[in-house]
Design brief:
By secondary structure, the protein is mostly helical. It has one domain. The protein is 75% helix and 0% strand. The chain is built from seven helices and no strands. It is elongated.
């Protein structure tokens, strides 16, 4: 698979997966990591992280109210979530990092909640990016381990 195709797939696929849970960034990355030479893996992981965090930033901004969410079900959910977050303490960097790394709580919801809680944007980017990068690096190593075992 050509380098350009792998890079564009990693970036665009992970961006879309930030919004649509049916598009799984980890499965996409597994396929790309299996198709790419080992020397490309760090770049593929970095691009997957950039794509995913670009999408999660949009969710963060929606939580902040910077990006308007259409009225209806999503808008109603955001208003209820904002009311709950306003009654509780701020989201911590540890929770954000843990969510980005493990997916518990779901990073989709944590990204929106971080915006609702007015969590520092730079902190969101640092903790989220670090957690996502480590998660994706672990996933990208799976094909290498399988090749080494077989």
């Amino acid at each position: 698979m050509p380098l350009l195709a792998i890079c564009l797939s990693a970036l665009s696929g992970s961006f879309v997966s930030a919004f649509l849970p049916a598009v799984n960034a980890e499965l996409l990355l597994l396929g790309l990591a299996a198709a790419a030479p080992p020397s490309w893996l760090l770049g593929v992981v970095a691009l997957t992280t950039v794509g995913q965090m670009s999408g999660k930033t949009m969710l963060y901004l929606a939580g902040r109210g910077v990006i308007m969410v259409p009225a209806g079900r999503a808008g109603t959910w955001l208003e209820r979530a904002k009311a709950r977050v306003d009654r509780h303490q701020r989201l911590g960097g540890t929770i954000l990092f843990t969510s980005a790394l493990s997916g518990v709580p779901p990073f989709y919801l944590t990204s929106i909640t971080a915006g609702l809680a007015r969590f520092d944007f730079r902190g969101f980017l640092v903790f989220g990016t670090l957690g996502r990068f480590l998660r994706f690096a672990a996933v990208a190593l799976v094909p290498l381990v399988i090749r080494a075992v077989l």
